[in-house]
Amino acid sequence: MRSLNEILEGCMASGRSFAAQALAAESAETGSSPDSIRAGLAGRLKDMEFSVREAAGGWRGLLVPEEAFLLEEYGKKESAFSSSFVLTAARISISVATYNSAMGRIVAAPTAGSCGILPGMLFACRKHLEADDESLIDGLITAAAVGEVTEARATLAGASGGCQAECGAAAAMGSAALVTIRGGSPDEVCHAVALTFKSVLGLVCDPVGGLVESPCIKRNGLLVSLGALAADFALAGMKSLIPADEVIDAMGQVGRALPETLRETGLGGLAASPTGRELARKLLD
Amino acid sequence: MGFLDIIGPVMIGPSSSHTAGAARLGSLARACWGDAPLSNITIFLRGSFAFTSKGHGTDKALVAGLMGMSPEDGGIRTALETAREKGFPFRFEIEQIDGAHPNSARFSFTGSDGTTMDVIGASLGGGAVELQEIDGFSVKISGEQPTLITFHRDVHGVVAAVAALFAERKINIASMTLHRRARGGLASLVAELDMEKTPGSELQRAVETAHPAIIRVVPLYRGGRTP
Questions:
Q1: Hey, what CATH topology would domain B3-135 get?
Q2: Per-residue pLDDT tens for A244-279?
Q3: Per residue in A155-204, pLDDT tens?
Q4: Cα(B157)–Cα(B214) distance, rounded to whole angstroms?
Q5: Percent of chain B with pLDDT strictly greater than 90
Q6: Highest-pLDDT range among A32-41, B122-131, B180-189
Q7: Is A166 on the interface with B (CB under 8 A)?
Q8: Which residue among A201, A284, B44, B199 is least crowded, i.e. fewest CB within 10 A of its CB?
């Protein structure tokens, strides 16, 4: 699967939804039946749900303390700027990412460093939109197709493309999933992807001490809101001037242009800040 | 990459390259060694494996993999303790090798009978790994396809005999590469196969007897001996 535009054209020719067309394309490429691919993703959804449940409370990383519960308390008593949907999604996202740092069992979607974003967005849909499993699986199919195209055209590895390729890609995948779950059109799915990626171009991977903790965990939580807003933009009828495939190509090109210090080496950016260095030094003691 | 590779793998965190990849690397290396009793495994950490090993649980994941655990096995968290309790004979060293892959390790096995084997592998990112060297042979083995590796004397007819056996059993060969140390010396053939699961012991034995020059056959798949 190399092109979102190809899926879009397939949708127009067949009248299928984005998820149905992507599933048909994946089936044609892999030789696996649509039912077995769907069943595989249903299993992944169960594993994600399990990680969300396990992640709730009691975990911390080596550097980052347990903080997701603060959002829950805040959401109850304050008039937050973000919607309750976004706060729920961010809380789940941060708790799963924290659980990952504590050697929890997670679904890398697309990577371990970005593993909070999709569960956050999907399970907030269950809580706030009462989305059923079938609709969440449709969302997951759409997200997987976006990830596969991103992998084929650019990269999903922080070491090759920086954080735009990991948390950025996860947010774009989640944004596409939200549009699907809301019943948006295939065109709107692609605009949500393009709008999300455009807002994370150049995002570097600069983990303190080389650990998947700072800034990774909170970035999982924060990028959930970008993906949600991009889905809102697309569903409102706003369009990206640059088509999604070309935005993904640009992401790949920007990633290749990033210096190595900003691609998961823990040598640049926040990792090279005085506090970042001090935290890394303490870890070695 | 398929949908389940993008939404996956299911794994113990925190890092697909430094934790999940390390577990797969350990189990691939162990599969090369097989089931023969061990007196020692020394794991030489290279590149960033040497520096961020503790924070990512790379050491735990490598040992877990060597003991046959998969990347999603919660036992990774306590693998070092488990290994010590079981008397699993591992130790770690750090080595700096010019030109080595930045996330890689060398596994040096010594059997109870004194036989040795050296396996070098790298974690490529996203949980994907590659065995790069077995006993001095340069290889390229991902373990993502069911794979058979032969060690044989470099004489004519081995490839044809193995290929004929696969043809007879209607097993399609996805890729096949040959490596040898010297003409007429020890050689190795790596065949990736279109099969649903790990090549079974019956097929392993059949390949072993396909040609008299074949000394040993190692089946590999999905980072371990079982899918």
A1: 60s Ribosomal Protein L30; Chain: A; (3.30.1330)
A2: 999 999 999 999 999 999 998 889 999 999 999 999
A3: 999 989 999 999 999 999 999 999 999 999 999 999 999 999 999 999 99
A4: 11
A5: 70
A6: A32-41
A7: no
A8: A284
* Cβ contacts of A99 within 8 Å, gap of 6 or more: A51, A54, A55, A59, A106, B13
Q: What is the ipTM of this complex?
A: 0.96
CA A158 to chain centre: 13
Domain ranges of chain B: 3-135, 147-220
Domain count, chain A: 1
**CA B129 to chain centroid:** 9
Q: What is the rounded distance in angstroms from the CA atom of residue B221 to the CA atom of residue B227?
A: 6
Residue B19 contacts A, CB cutoff 8 Å: yes
Please tell me the distance from the alpha carbon of residue B201 to that of residue A237, in angstroms, as a whole number: 59
What are the CA-CA distances from residue B194 to residues B91, B146, B168, B180 (Å)?
36, 7, 14, 25
- Cα separation, A222 vs A172, in Å, equals 13
Of A26, A102, A118, the CB nearest to B2: A26
- Tell me the pLDDT tens digit for each residue of A229-249: 999 999 999 999 999 999 999
Tokens describing residue B121: 């592998």
What residues of chain A lie within 8 A of the CB of B196, using their CB?
A: none
Average pLDDT score, chain A: 96
Q: Indicate the helix (H) or strand (E) that contains B160.
A: helix B158-168
Identical topology for domains B3-135 and B147-220 = no
- With residue B192 as reference, give the H or E element that holds it: strand B186-193
Handedness of CA A88, A114, A139, B222 (dihedral sign): negative
Least Cα separation, residue B57 to chain A (angstroms): 8
- Residue among B75, B73, B79, B86 at smallest CA distance from B60: B79
Task: Output the pTM of the full model.
Answer: 0.91
Domain range for A142: 4-284
Is A152 part of the contact surface with chain B (CB cutoff 8 Å)?
A: yes
Chain A environment of B74 (Cβ under 8 Å): 105
Q: What is the pLDDT of residues A87-131, one digit of tens each?
A: 999 999 999 999 999 999 999 999 999 999 999 999 999 999 999
Confidence of residue A3 (pLDDT cuts 50, 70, 90): very high
The CATH superfamily label for domain B147-220 reads ACT domain (3.30.70.260)
Q: Does B57 touch chain A (CB under 8 A)?
A: yes
Give me the phi and psi of B107, to 5 degrees please. Answer: -105, 120
Chain B residue at shortest CA distance from A156: B126
| pLDDT at residue A24 tops 50 | yes
